[in-house]
Specification:
Blueprint: H1 4-7, H2 11-20, H3 31-40, H4 46-63, H5 67-76, H6 95-101, H7 116-124, E1 133-136, E2 139-142, H8 145-151, H9 161-168, H10 172-180, E3 187-188, E4 194-197, H11 203-216, E5 224-226, H12 227-238, H13 244-254
Antiparallel strand pairs: 1-2, 3-4, 4-5
Helix pairs in contact: 2-11, 5-7, 8-13, 10-12, 11-12
């Protein structure tokens, strides 16, 4: 596989085209738009907030088939919002070629919205999983890396030895230098986490970061780059072989309570 840097001559143009795209994704919303949206927001009273929470709780309780699953959800996940795939309206060359070389083209196809009730029960039942399957509404649902790879047409993918070594022993100094061209520094995040600022990333690293955060392993935290995301970014930029199915499975298991 060719080094990504040799196939992306001008990433600033790519980023500018993404920010101008209308539709699902706006990577850098204009400040004026954010200000106008803030002016339109009406204050919510305590009574309205209380009614909203009670209504949401009733709806969630009705959606669960299993009382045990609902108890787990209420204890560990209630109040946490979903982070779905946001996708991209179009693939820009040569970024498109890089994605397809890795067999990740299916990630860019627009998917229908998920069924929230089933997603809630899936995560609630992860504790009682059997091997790589979760029992949801009378059915054992497989979620392992093999199943994920088959769903996305990525059969035969495996982590390369260099990526495995990186996962086991990441070099933060090397990663920061590669991802930020030497100008970024690791900062203490939540708990023991270390993070880099998205603003310090090179243009090339930013494109891939949005791909990870919006498509492969969706996250609502796009202002900072956590260490696991930095490892993936570094591996992509270095051209290491990556098993996307394993990456997604690990992301699912990290949400387990």
């Amino acid at each position: 596989m060719a080094e990504p840097s040799t196939l992306i001559p001008n990433l600033r143009e790519i980023m500018e085209e993404y920010t101008q795209t209308e539709g699902d994704v706006h990577l850098e919303p204009e400040r004026e738009n954010r200000q106008s949206e803030q002016l339109e927001v009406q204050p919510v009273t305590k009574q309205q907030r209380k009614k909203g929470k009670e209504k949401q709780q009733e709806e969630e309780e009705d959606e669960f088939v299993s009382e045990e699953a609902y108890s787990v959800w209420k204890k560990h996940y209630a109040g946490k919002g979903f982070v779905g795939e946001r996708g991209f309206n179009q693939l820009i060359s040569p970024f498109k070629e890089l994605i397809e070389q890795r067999g990740w083209g299916e990630f860019f196809k627009h998917k229908k919205s998920g069924y929230a009730a089933v997603v809630r029960e899936f995560y609630s039942n992860l504790v009682g999983r059997k091997e790589n399957s979760v029992y949801v509404r009378g059915v054992w649902v497989p979620y392992g890396e093999k199943t994920i790879n088959e769903m996305y047409g990525m059969v035969g993918q495996k982590n390369g030895s260099k990526f495995k070594k990186l996962m086991n022993n990441p070099n933060r100094e090397k990663m920061a230098r590669k991802l930020t061209d030497g100008k970024g520094q690791w900062k203490k995040g939540k708990g023991e986490q270390k993070t880099l600022s998205r603003g310090d990333l090179t243009e090339e690293a930013k494109v891939w970061f949005y791909f990870l955060a919006y498509v492969m392993v969706p996250t609502k935290h796009v202002c900072t780059v956590r260490e696991q995301e930095a490892i993936l970014l570094y591996a992509i930029l270095k051209g290491y072989k990556i098993d996307a199915g394993t990456v997604i499975e690990n992301s699912i298991m990290s949400k387990r309570r």
